Amino acid sequence: MFTRLYLHIPFCRRKCPYCAFVSQEPAAGDLEGYGDTLQAEMGLAAQAFRAERPLKSVYFGGGTPSLLDPRQVARLLQQAETLFGLGREAEITLEANPGTVDLERLAAFRAAGVNRLSIGVQSFHDPLLTILGRIHSATEAKEAFQAARDAGFANIGIDLIHALPDQTLPMWRHELEQALALAPEHISVYGLTVEEGTPFAARYGEDSPLLPDEDLAAAMFEEADDLLTAAGYEHYEIANYALPGRRSDHNSGYWRRDGYLGLGAGAHSFLRTGYGVRFGNPADLDAYARAVAQGRLPHQDVQTLARQDAMAEFMFLGLRMADGVDKNAFRREFGAGLDEMFGREVSKLTTLELLETAVDRVRLTRRGMLLSNQVFAHFLP
Ligand code: SF4
């Protein structure tokens, strides 16, 4: 049913004005209580669902998981080991905000079993960090990176955002150069999306002249591709670059439709049964904690996928990866050929130079990566 575990930590020291993730500022005692609820939910889930032992990956995402007490992370990992098994090679990632970690805490996370760190740097330019409402400076981000190395992390990713207010192409190039100077194993590069309902949406409405236009945003995407691949990083997914052998295994599992169990407020799960079942937990912390305290799994919005839904997902998730969709894997999964099911769409998108096809696979072109949402829309049922 699942081989991967996701734990959502919905707390941040301060809410960033562009953020639409499930997160809030914690009150006293919230984090400790929440860790206990996660443990209780894991126990309930283990009774209800079967993991294919051992787990391949565990991911602490948020929010800001680095606010957790490392002892709590250790307890959660020990419980995951007992209930589901953790492979010796399992990738165990924790997202860290540079404003919340020091050498001691990072060493304690490492000792707890975390073997991969994803640091939310976002920018190395202090004025942009201020606009983003981040709680750390560029110097603190660099110090957090070095502290992570000193704490023994040999697998570190950093996140950057481009297409920020008043950002120019030379500014973005400088961001990338500073990221490369740190030599992380993994770099994620996201374009800013102005999410509805956030303070950013009020400040930078649609087509705001304060934001880079489409052409400049595209140039920034291409700049990242050029610079990072020239430095030896594989551009293995639309927004993700890795040194050889350092792709995010957990996230690759999402794009390959591996089953995963999501724990915590606002977490989503995907279980491999039939063509797949998706469901989520309530984002509301009280509703989530109440259900678990009553001994109930707080699942809602349960969606049992039909064959057509699963085929569409297989395409638009698989196409996110530079390797693209393997035609043989499609046939193994659905007992039908990709050309037979999506021949018309693939041929149209190939003519538009958004897809390229080989005998055994279909993948996005660089232009297709830039316009990926338009491509994916063609596969929706
Ligand atoms: S730290 Fe990350 S999750 Fe938290 S508010 Fe900022 S962007 Fe959102």
SSE run: EHEHEHEHHEHEHHEEHEEEHEHEHHEEHH
- State the separation between the terminal residues, measured CA to CA: 24 Å
DSSP strand count: 15
Fraction of residues in helix: 40-55%
- Strand order within the widest beta sheet: 7-8-6-5-4-3-2-1-9
CATH class group of the largest domain: Alpha Beta
Q: Using the CA coordinates, give the radius of gyration.
A: 21 Å
The percentage of residues in β strands lies in 15-25%
Number of domains: 2
Largest sheet: 9 strands, mixed
The CATH architecture of the largest domain: Alpha-Beta Barrel
CATH topology of the largest domain: TIM Barrel
How would you sum up this structure, described in words?
The structure is a single chain. With 381 residues, the protein is an alpha/beta fold. The chain has two domains: 4-254, TIM Barrel (Alpha-Beta Barrel); 307-377, Arc Repressor Mutant, subunit A. The protein is built from 15 helices and 15 strands. A nine-stranded mixed beta sheet has the order 7-8-6-5-4-3-2-1-9, sandwiched between helices. Helix 1 (30-48) runs parallel beside helix 2 and helix 6 packs parallel to helix 8 (214-230). The longest helix has 19 residues, at 30-48. It is globular. The model has no long low-confidence stretch (mean pLDDT 96). The structure holds iron/sulfur cluster (SF4). Iron/sulfur cluster is lined by residues 12, 15-16, 19, 21, 23, 62-64, 97, 120.
